[in-house]
Amino acid sequence: MERPLTQHIPDNGAALHLREYEAVGGYSALRKALRDMEPAQVSTLVKEANLKGRGGAGFATGMKWSFVPMNVPGPKYLIANADEMEPGTFKDRWLLEGNPHQLLEGMILASYAIQATDAFVFLRWAYKDAAREMRQAIADAYTAGYLGKNILGSDFSLEMQLHTGVGRYMCGEETALLNSLEGKRATPRAKPPFPQVSGLFGKPTIVNNVETLSWISHIVNNGEAWFKSLSHTADGGTKIYGVSGRVNKPGAWELPMGITMRELLEEHAGGMRNGYRFRGALPGGASTDFLTDAHLDVKMDFAGVAAAGSRLGTGTMVVLDDHTCPVGFVHNLEHFFAQESCGFCTPCREGLPWTEKILWSLENGTGEPSDLELLERHARLLGPGNTFCALAPGAMEPLQSALKYFREDFEQHIKEKKCPYAHHQH
Amino acid sequence: MLSAIEIEKISHELRHVPVKKAACIEALKIVQQERRWISDESVADIAAMLEMSTAEVDSVATFYNLIFRQPVGRHIILLCDSISCYVMGYTVLRQRLHEILLIGYGQTTADERFTLLPNACLGTCDHAPALMIDDDLYRDLQPADLEQILEKYH
Ligand SMILES: Cc1cc2nc3c(=O)[nH]c(=O)nc-3n(C[C@H](O)[C@H](O)[C@H](O)COP(=O)(O)O)c2cc1C
Ligand code: SF4
Ligand code: FES
């Protein structure tokens, strides 16, 4: 089983430094592209590989790049989204701390493809080790001539900066990220214009996830057929999957795209801990719909999880066990979303705190039978198309699916006027 | 008044941006690093240096979770209160921290040693529950571990 993204990361998680990275073929894709390929050929190759974005939405990367106008003078930007703040998600951390040059090489290649002049790593504040490794890697790449003026003697030049954030989930939303990089509040921008045309400081800009960009050097070196062959399904490549919650071996693994939920839970995460039963899971972070034990054979790729009524999202699964209250679980999620709402549009600013309040009333025994309908109304009214960005619709995904799959728990809270779970975890 | 060091560091940032305003977040980070928090006076000083209104600087300062507009202690405890840590029992850690430090969220100990804050997912969910103190991450925590960890910070 091939693990191109993580195979060289030492088991203790320490970073692969420049010399070690070069010793395993690092920067050979960059040499090859600058010597033998036109920028458009790099884009075409990524398009043919059908690489889909690993940041949550699964948008085709080559397609995204193709919207950048190529023959305009002036600055263009490439940004690695390393904000990773989706609760339950810890996959980009592994790549950032363990293989920083793989990300840099991918970013330089992506910048070459769109002819970017400047690149940024937008890193969340909490990732201190990643910040140290990235800073070192950028400095080493400059010294070695992989960054700066006339890279490897070519006529391509690129400047690279690390930006560390000051904490806000909305910084991960790509247009809000641009505002934050411009020193402003992280509120989203109206689209169109799309960032590919008018992004950072009004210039063409591409934002891609860390895991997405970490693929580029491998695709350039090995081609699209190889990329597709790594996967069990039509979505190519491997995927970094993760599991957290009451399983025997929580962790993250690079596995062929499209393994089943059952394989992930049982073979890799070691099954449920003794005395705990699986009730459901968010397959790809806090803003994805629950799946239950009826879905264990679902293939975890973009189409498979969507067909089961959820989203692959970030591919990092949070498990709900039978000792944890599903209402309390969803209350915790909605508390997060209400806190992180940027307040820019009314349904989200008002609706999320209200949702949180209703769930809290259920938990402390003051819920009313009409509350379930009220929650369902929120799930509809904060859904896709009614808010300015995807935060609120994402927040409604676990809520609407919990109301569907764990309805008897909600009803029991109202009937018994208390949370029936032993340790009321607030 | 901004110190000479602060002015030098902010000026350095200004060289990397096309408009002065764009250095606003960096300027807040720089001043906070020197003074632990951002006072009204600092907001006004930054505004003057970046040719912004104080309201504009304040709107940015108050937006971000980790820019502090109130005095804080020498060490910041950020307790993850997101979903995996919820499942794995962060509430027990919160309870224990309250007992040891006699403060709730948003409060600072009388000796100004610690400020306790909740924080969204720290991105280490396979090792939940977790917390950070300043730049240090602690994972797979048990309530009994806390006292010894806190000892390290003065
Ligand atoms: C509220 C919100 C938070 C997001 N946070 C992140 C994040 O931390 N990292 C990320 O890569 N994408 C995040 N996204 C998705 C980005 O907007 C964007 O789609 C992604 O970075 C594109 O990268 P990709 O095409 O490589 O997947 C977030 C989206 C929303 C709505
Ligand atoms: S949906 Fe929420 S986070 Fe998104 S713009 Fe509206 S208020 Fe802001
Ligand atoms: S939920 Fe606590 S570290 Fe992710």
A few lines on this structure:
The complex is a heterodimer of chains A (426) and B (154). With 426 residues, chain A is of the alpha/beta class.
Features:
heterodimer, A: 426 residues, alpha/beta, Rossmann fold, Ubiquitin-like (UB roll), de novo design (two linked rop proteins), 3 domains, 4-stranded parallel beta sheet, 4-stranded mixed beta sheet, 42% helix, B: 154 residues, alpha+beta, Arc Repressor Mutant, subunit A, Glutaredoxin, 7 helices, binds flavin mononucleotide, binds iron/sulfur cluster, binds FE2/S2 (inorganic) cluster, metal ion binding (chain A), NADH-quinone oxidoreductase subunit F (chain A), Nuo51_FMN-bd (chain A), 4Fe-4S (chain A)
Walk me through what this model shows.
The complex is a heterodimer of chains A (426) and B (154). By secondary structure, chain A is an alpha/beta fold. Chain A has three domains: 18-229, Rossmann fold, CATH 3.40.50.11540; 238-321, Ubiquitin-like (UB roll); 326-416, NADH-ubiquinone oxidoreductase 51kDa subunit, iron-sulphur binding domain (de novo design (two linked rop proteins), Up-down Bundle). Helix content of chain A is 42%, strand content 11%. Chain A contains 17 helices and eight strands. Chain A has helices spanning 18-23, 28-36, 39-49, 61-66, 91-98, 100-114, 128-143, 174-181, 210-214, 216-229, 261-268, 302-307, 326-340, 346-363, 371-381, 391-405, 407-416, and strands at 77-82, 118-123, 159-164, 205-209, 238-244, 251-256, 278-282, 316-321. In chain A, strands 3-2-1-4 form a four-stranded parallel beta sheet, with helices on both faces. Chain A has a four-stranded mixed beta sheet with strand order 6-5-8-7, with helices on one face. In chain A, strand 5 and strand 6 (251-256) form a beta hairpin. The radius of gyration of chain A is 22 Å and the shape is globular. Chain A starts with 17 loop residues before the first helix and ends in a 10-residue tail after the last helix. In chain B, strand 3 (131-133) and strand 4 form a beta hairpin. The two termini of chain B are 28 Å apart. Chain B is α+β, with helices and mostly antiparallel strands and 154 residues long. Chain B is elongated. In chain B, helix 2 (24-35) runs antiparallel to helix 3. Chain B folds into two domains: 4-61, Arc Repressor Mutant, subunit A (Orthogonal Bundle), CATH 1.10.10; 75-151, Glutaredoxin (3-Layer(aba) Sandwich), CATH 3.40.30.10. Chain B has helices spanning 4-14, 24-35, 40-50, 54-61, 83-87, 90-101, 146-151; strands at residues 75-80, 114-119, 131-133, 136-138. Chain B contains seven helices and four strands; from the N terminus they run H-H-H-H-E-H-H-E-E-E-H. The relative contact order of chain B is 0.12. The chains are: A alpha/beta (426), B alpha+beta (154). Chains A and B meet through strand 5, strand 8 and helix 13 of A and helix 2 and helix 5 of B. The structure holds flavin mononucleotide (FMN), iron/sulfur cluster and FE2/S2 (inorganic) cluster (FES). FE2/S2 (inorganic) cluster binds at residues 80, 82-85, 121-125, 128, 130 of chain B. Chain A: NDH-1 shuttles electrons from NADH, via FMN and iron-sulfur (Fe-S) centers, to quinones in the respiratory chain.
